[in-house]
Amino acid sequence: MRKRKLFWVLFLLCIWGGDRIAWSYQWPIEPRILSVFAQGGAEGFERSIRVSANNSEIKPIEEGELIFFCSEGSPSSLPYPLGSFTVLQHGRTLRSLYAHLELSDSVQRMEKTNYQKGDVLGKTGLTGASSIVGLSLFTYDLEAKQFVNPLLLLPPVKDTSRPIIRNAQLEKKDRIIPLPTAEPVPKGMWEVTAEVFDLSSAVPTFWPMGVYKVNLYLNGQERFMVTMDTLKEQGGVTRVSPSEGLAYDQLYSKEGFRMKLGTVNLNPGVLNLEIVARDFAGNEKNQLYRFRVE
Fold first, then answer.
1. CA 219 – CA 149 distance, rounded (Å)
2. pLDDT at 72
3. Which of 102, 156, 169, 262 could form a disulfide with 125 if both were Cys (CB 3.0 to 4.6 A apart)?
4. Mean pLDDT for back-to-back runs of 10 residues, the chain (294 residues)
5. Which long-range contacts (CB under 8 A, 24 or more apart) does 283-287 make?
6. How do the residues of the chain divide into helix, strand and coil, expressed in percent and rounded to 5?
7. What pLDDT is recorded for position 217?
């Protein structure tokens, strides 16, 4: 079932043309990415991607119908963390939302409802709860009732830097063992955590952001896997899919980008524990820890 859904998504997102993919969606502005979908945030999972740009025109990711907009500061508007934003509908099932804008006159005056890929929705701004000029882009699947990672829709971004894995550790209720370790590890059940993140190339300073996929292997066998494809509300709790439907506190610790990578049963012997992180551009980082269990 999951393979069939993935095929359907890929089929809708692109059109095969010879030896390359012709993407039907476009970036609304130059992709200088600051944060990515489903990374940890102050309010839980990030449901959008955040792109930095100064005074840049914002265009639709695809032809669509303007179904809603909010202009910050207008007499009829309420304060939103998203600031000024627009919502476009693409076909029957997909919506895109563009937040923290300075809306164009055509949007505010409702001069038209159908917007083409070359039309301007507004410019990047500082409206709402935003401290950096840019855009937050959300994409939502109406049929599945879930947020979709915009990076599944948009053309690939050039990126050659690998994710970072650091400060891995084994945790129990009453003990933490940093990895690597030269000391023997007591046998039994241990939770594996690590700081896992990518670095944004949009700013010259240290700016961590999330990754797309993380795996944990014990002696070559996969024990944990998560991919950041969609976010869906289930029983009032937001869960990341198509992995095991992990809630925020099941995947992230409160310490920045520390991720919970599952619980493993460590039996006596020399064991190999491997963490693999991948970003959406396909860059991969492997970190292997070898230690003795007694």
1. 32
2. 82
3. 102
4. 41 37 80 94 90 93 95 66 93 95 92 94 84 90 96 93 97 95 97 97 91 97 96 92 86 87 97 97 97 97
5. 283/159, 283/160, 283/161, 283/162, 283/163, 284/162, 284/163, 285/162, 285/163, 285/164, 285/165, 287/165, 287/168, 287/194
6. 10, 50, 45
7. 98
Closest by alpha carbon to 101, among 79, 77, 130? 130
> What pTM, to 2 d.p., does this model score?
0.88
Q: What's the per-residue H, E or C state across 212-280? A: CEEEEEECCEEEEEEEEEEEEEECCEEEEEECCCEEHHHHECCCCCEEEEEEEEECCEEEEEEEEEECC
Tell me if 62 sits within 8 A of 14, measured CB to CB.
no
Any idea which residue has 């439907």 for tokens? 245
Q: Report yes or no: 84 and 128 within 8 Å, Cβ to Cβ.
A: yes
Q: What is the per-residue pLDDT for 215?
A: 97
C-alpha span between 263 and 261 (Å, rounded): 7
How many alpha carbons lie under 13 Å from residue 234 in its C-beta half-sphere? 12
Rounded Cα distance between 160 and 81, Å, is 33
Predicted pLDDT of residue 6: 43
Q: Read off the tokens for 15.
A: 């059109």
Identify the DSSP state of 96.
Answer: E
The predicted structure's pLDDT at residue 243: 72
Q: Which residue segments constitute the domains of the chain, with CATH numbers given? A: 13-21+30-152 (2.70.70.10), 164-293 (2.60.40.10)
Furthest-apart CA pair in the chain: how many Å?
Answer: 72
Written as one letter, the residue type at 165 is I
Tokens of 187: 């046998």
Dihedral through CA 251, CA 192, CA 179, CA 265, nearest 10? -170
